[in-house]
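Quick log. Single chain, no ligands specified.
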Amino acid sequence: MNYVTQTLIDIYKERFAHDKSYLSEKLEELEAHKNKYDGLDFLCSKADRTTIKMYADKTELTVADIETLKEMWYKI
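-> predicted structure:
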């Protein structure tokens, strides 16, 4: 499992421990990722503001860095 996806999985487990069906659905989707680009695509296209903030807190990125990544991601 790549770092990007594993970090997202950790965030979803933390956020949605009380909602087993939603968590199960998201974990299934995340566990299907084949590489870090799948994780980055999820972060850029499917993650909400709270997930983005939590991702920034768990990495050396800022929310602004992730927003810049999102802008670049949509252009390539």
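The radius of gyration is 12 Å.
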